[in-house]
């Protein structure tokens, strides 16, 4: 069975350009508020460096994410799934501005076309380049895959280590958060239900 694909660019909102001068000036103030001398040798270029990093982080260009190819699934009593796993994505938790290290597994059941494999990783990375929640990142990836694959059967599993839970606060070093988003044939009751729970249990197959 084939469905007509209407591939569009992914729905990652393009952030405005970062005013690096303003960001650097604010970091200079922050260093002063933290009791540092922003003019000392080791710190004098730090505000500009950090401002460059924010621009690199938030102005990330995911590149082309919707290349697809015609593909005939052999239907001799079989079926076909495509799953890319072990995609490591770095993001920032929006509550504490602390690092999140996430491993993503994402898959779909092709319906007449296959998506370029790298596009799954590009979509996953794109969602990391903003202040995030693990759950929102996962749902954004699932939404984009539903759109660009043209398939209703999509699943995403994410395992995350949150520095805000290890380097500060509760200090639950080693805690891993698992989230799973399943659609169509991957949803409960569907033929592939459970598959992503298995993948997630293995740490999104890292
Ligand atoms: N659901 C969800 N929560 C997150 C994520 N990242 C961080 N958090 C949580 O956001 C919550 C913020 O809680 P608050 O009580 O407002 O802040 P806090 O006093 O710094 O909390 P602690 O982290 O418990 O010290 C914490 O429970 C974090 O673990 C995420 O990706 N998803
Ligand atoms: Zn946090």
UniProtKB/TrEMBL annotation:
The keyword Kinase does not apply. It catalyses: GTP + H2O = 7,8-dihydroneopterin 3'-triphosphate + formate + H(+). Pathway: Cofactor biosynthesis; 7,8-dihydroneopterin triphosphate biosynthesis; 7,8-dihydroneopterin triphosphate from GTP: step 1/1. It comes from the Bacteria. Residues 26-187 form the GTP cyclohydrolase I domain. Its EC number is 3.5.4.16. Gene3D superfamilies: 1.10.286.10, 3.30.1130.10. The keyword Electron transport does not apply. It is an enzyme of class 3 (hydrolase). Keywords: Hydrolase, One-carbon metabolism. One of its GO terms (molecular function) is GTP cyclohydrolase I activity. This is GTP cyclohydrolase 1. It comes from Streptomyces halstedii. The gene is folE.
């Amino acid at each position: 069975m084939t469905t007509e694909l209407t591939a569009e660019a992914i729905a990652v909102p393009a952030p405005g350009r970062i005013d690096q001068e303003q960001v650097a000036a604010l970091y200079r103030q922050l260093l002063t508020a933290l009791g540092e001398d922003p003019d000392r040798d080791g710190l004098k270029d730090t505000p500009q460096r950090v401002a460059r990093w924010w621009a690199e982080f938030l102005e990330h260009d995911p590149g082309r994410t919707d290349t697809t190819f015609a593909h005939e699934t052999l239907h001799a009593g079989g079926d076909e799934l495509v799953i890319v796993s072990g995609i490591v994505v770095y993001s920032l938790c929006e509550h504490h501005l602390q690092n999140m290290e996430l491993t993503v597994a994402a898959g779909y059941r092709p319906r007449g076309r296959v998506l370029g494999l790298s596009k799954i990783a590009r979509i996953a990375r794109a969602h990391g380049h903003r202040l995030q929640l693990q759950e929102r990142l996962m749902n954004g990836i699932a939404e984009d895959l539903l759109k660009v694959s043209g398939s209703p059967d999509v699943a995403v599993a994410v395992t995350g280590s949150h520095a805000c839970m290890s380097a500060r606060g509760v200090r639950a070093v080693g805690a891993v958060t698992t989230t799973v988003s399943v659609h169509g044939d991957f949803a409960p009751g569907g033929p592939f239900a459970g598959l992503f729970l298995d993948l997630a249990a293995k740490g999104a197959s890292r």
